[in-house]
Amino acid sequence: MEPANDMQAASSTYSSFVGTLKWSVPLIAVIVFIIILVIV
Length: 40
Hints:
Number of helices: 1
Mean pLDDT: 89
Strand content: under 5%
Order of helices and strands: H
Low-confidence stretches: none
Structural class: mainly alpha
Helix content: over 70%
Distance between the termini: 56 Å
Largest sheet: none
Radius of gyration: 17 Å
Number of strands: 0
Shape: rod-shaped
């Protein structure tokens, strides 16, 4: 069983999460902007 405080795994998980967030937030913002333009 691995130790509970495995910093290498935690750092890897965090960096992949931040990487995904960097692409998903602007993409969602563009999609919302387009939807607002269609509605109005």
